[in-house]
Design a protein that fits this description.
Helix content is 41%, strand content 18%. It is α/β, with parallel strands linked by helices and 309 residues long. The protein folds into two domains: 189 residues, Rossmann fold, CATH 3.40.50; 87 residues, Diaminopimelate Epimerase, Chain A, domain 1 (Roll). The strands form two sheets. A six-stranded mixed beta sheet has the order 6-7-8-9-11-10, with helices on both faces.
């Protein structure tokens, strides 16, 4: 049973990614865990790990994250050499590779952390015990998979506020200290009822500032049509894009609008969130050089302002 010595774990820089880190730290206490997003930095890291002098790791795991297509065959070569490689991802862009390689695990009905935990529940010899994390991960999935009607969704929104308000290590450690159920997971209560007073104040302050910011952004939302004649809402922002989609849904939007397009002017990225439950924004994102899943996706800002091809 591995304790993670020599393992490198790459996770996404969002709530699901941090849940993956929590699970991974339970599985492999001595693993090195890095937070990444879909950008050039991740590409450079993959080149380092797969370069000629790539003896710095014994196991490589990616969770809620996957590399660009060109890296999958190179990872397969490492697997053929006997090295431990696993990818746990729920985005459509990695699905074809899961059909080709047994070490790629993809299921768009689960969040990345659920995939990671479920696999190791079936293969206990590949890591240490995670413990009972089902409700914790269901809550993460309610946020990450955009399950707006899920009973856990209100709790999930508070959890995401906590994730964004606290630093990565403080958030992760909060859920590593003691049993998960001791920290949060009473379905009838709120996240803020179970965390320390200082953390509660941080989250409350963030929510207050965010509300004022969203109110301002909402006045700048424009209604447009893309090249496929889909009506969508467009806004340029600098932060809090996922939370803003929630705000727009609650505040109201024009009938017939299919999706919300949010361009981050600081990072040069575009996030898409569905407004029509039948509309799949991941198709748009993939056509524009990005990816994601049905309700939430993104792509580089090079293809901004409603271009669909």
């Amino acid at each position: 049973m591995s304790d993670g010595k020599g393992f490198i774990v790459l996770v996404h820089g969002d709530l699901d990614g941090r849940a993956c880190e929590i699970v991974a730290r339970r599985l492999w206490p001595h693993a090195r865990i890095e937070e990444h997003n879909y950008n050039e930095r991740l590409d450079n890291r993959m080149e380092e790990l797969l370069g000629e002098k790539n003896d710095s790791w014994e196991g490589l795991v990616m969770a809620d994250l996957h590399p660009r297509d060109q890296f999958f065959p190179r990872l397969e070569e490492e697997v053929k050499k006997g090295r431990y490689v696993r990818i746990y991802d729920h985005h459509k862009t990695s699905q074809p590779w899961s059909e080709k390689y047994a070490w790629v695990h993809n299921d768009n009905k689960l969040c990345g952390a659920q995939l990671l935990a479920a696999y190791h529940a079936r293969h206990p010899g590949e890591g240490q015990s995670v413990g009972n994390v089902d409700t914790f991960l269901e809550t993460v999935a309610a946020y990450d998979l955009w399950k707006l009607d899920d009973p856990l969704r209100p709790l999930a929104e508070e959890l995401n506020h906590l994730c964004m308000a606290l630093s990565r290590m403080v958030f992760v450690q909060l859920f590593l200290d003691g049993d998960y159920d001791h920290v949060v997971w009473d379905r009838e209560n709120k996240v803020l009822d179970h965390i320390s007073v200082p953390a509660s104040l941080v989250v409350a302050s963030k929510i207050s500032k965010e509300k004022r910011y969203f109110e301002n952004c909402y006045t700048r939302v424009q209604t447009r049509k893309d090249a496929d004649n889909n009506v969508f809402l467009e806004v340029y922002m600098s932060q809090g894009m996922s939370g803003f989609a929630e705000y727009v849904r609650a505040a109201g939007f024009p009938a017939g609008a299919k999706y919300l397009q949010m361009t981050n002017v600081e990072t040069g990225s575009v996030s898409l969130r569905t407004l029509d439950p039948e509309f799949d924004v991941s198709i748009l994102a993939k056509a524009r050089g990005g990816g994601g899943h049905r309700a939430a996706a993104g792509y580089p800002a090079l293809f901004a302002r409603g271009q669909s091809k």
